[in-house]
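Sequence in, structure out.
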Amino acid sequence: DGEHELRVTARDQFGRSDSETVEVIVDTVAPLIKIVSPTSRKKLNADSILSVVYTEELLDGVSLFFTNNDGELIERELDCEAGQNKECKVTLGDLKLNDGTLTFFFEVRDELREVRSRERLLNIDVTDPEITVNTPTTPVTGSVFINVNVNEKSTLSFSTNEESFKTLCRSCTSFNRFKNIGDADKLTIRAVDKAGNVAEKVAFEEDD
């Protein structure tokens, strides 16, 4: 496989000749798509990566096809390299999609043919969770009743005085229990949703 030159020569009975050279490409192997990620039904945020691993020495191009929020099929040509086990990827945030579902597939092309991956359906969540802190809202210490709500299932955690976060609950929409926060000048609540979007809210912060 590869680029070659073919020379064709014609001679008549008197020994006169003429030649013509033609450049041709021999490609007997179709592009091979090996891995496409992520898998179907996974929940993704704006930082998530769509990627394809492929093999094609005579690469003509790689495209991502996806449906936008209006259901329109859009092609995005990617800047990818030829070779063995090459990876090409795009960040979901670059596609500028809203929350919803996304159908996508990759196409890998050489000079003669194209190969497409199977379609995959993903759940898109690019919106941060919304936290409501009911109590406490003023500086307190010791054992404190923490009453927090979040608008979607998330992992809730808290931090005092900007130290590391400690988990309150997982896959929950509220937390209503007493918690010992010690001698805290500042209390911050964090929510991380299923797609990995993060929101933080300061419950209270004591003035200097």
